[in-house]
Amino acid sequence: MPETGEDLIVFENVCKSFGSLHVLKGVSLAVKRGETLVIIGQSGVGKSVSLRLMIGLLYPDSGKCLYMGREIPQMNDVQLDEMRRHFAMLFQSGALFDSMTVGENVTFGLRANGMTDEDEMTRIMEDKLRAVGLGKKKFPEIPAKLPSQLSGGQKKRVALARAIAVEPEIVLYDEPTTGLDPIMSDAIADLIISTCEDLKHKNVTSIVVTHDMHVALKTADRILMFHGGEIVGEGDPDYYRNIRETDDDSKLTEKEKMIRQFVRGQAVGPIQAVL
Ligand SMILES: Nc1ncnc2c1ncn2[C@@H]1O[C@H](COP(=O)(O)OP(=O)(O)O)[C@@H](O)[C@H]1O
Ligand SMILES: [Mg+2]
Fold this sequence. Notes:
Layout: E1 7-18, E2 21-32, E3 36-40, H1 47-54, E4 62-67, E5 70-71, H2 77-84, E6 87-90, H3 102-112, H4 118-131, H5 152-165, E7 170-174, H6 182-200, E8 205-209, H7 213-219, E9 222-227, E10 230-235, H8 237-245, H9 254-264
Parallel strand pairs: 3-8, 3-9, 6-7, 7-8
Antiparallel strand pairs: 1-2, 1-4, 4-5, 9-10
The chain binds adenosine-5'-diphosphate (ADP) and magnesium ion.
């Protein structure tokens, strides 16, 4: 097994624009194997763009995006496919394939990777469904159901089971709780927290983009805050908790005042809400 703590994904001074919109203006970061990195920041600061750069769905205008020391934009299609096999993604929509049963959805990635042993796939499918709280003791009928027969929360759980079924090295979560009602959001947040913890024991790296500070503080080894095309905050959850609890402005830098406004969820402060 590869060493914990090695640099898995590195950005060196990455710039990315869309026309005149300069989204990333020189971002440098390193994601270490086995860590849970949380990325926070306002809508439109380039969090999803950063995730897409990490899996080679976008290329930087300048600067470098590296996976295991290799520049992603220089990989050919075979190398890109090989790299992406190590990733799993859970996006906001968490879309399942509508015409496939839950069981087929969860084993889809295994089949795509060439697995043919049906018993083994069933075992993995049951194991992953159990891991997301849909074990066969309580939910024996779930694997045969179609996505349209599931509740919203169950769909999210199945999407997560599908993402982790292929035993990825890196799991990317893009705002997994956004757009859910508060109760469901809380349930999925707990699920993300326990999944990150569980996978961490297997040396899996998690990168979580979220607005949910509860999830951020509970799961992260390290939290990065993006603002204005740059990283304005980097620290462990205690660093962010301390800033949140600090009322005395003279004890905070300008960047820390921005962080405080964000983690407190306040409309008034150095960050302007874009309406
Ligand atoms: N493929 C694209 N073409 C044009 N603009 C894009 C593209 N992808 C993202 N953007 C813009 O870049 C900005 C950052 O997007 P994104 O990373 O999705 O923000 P967020 O931090 O909310 O995830 C947004 O203003 C978005 O509209
Ligand atoms: Mg986004």
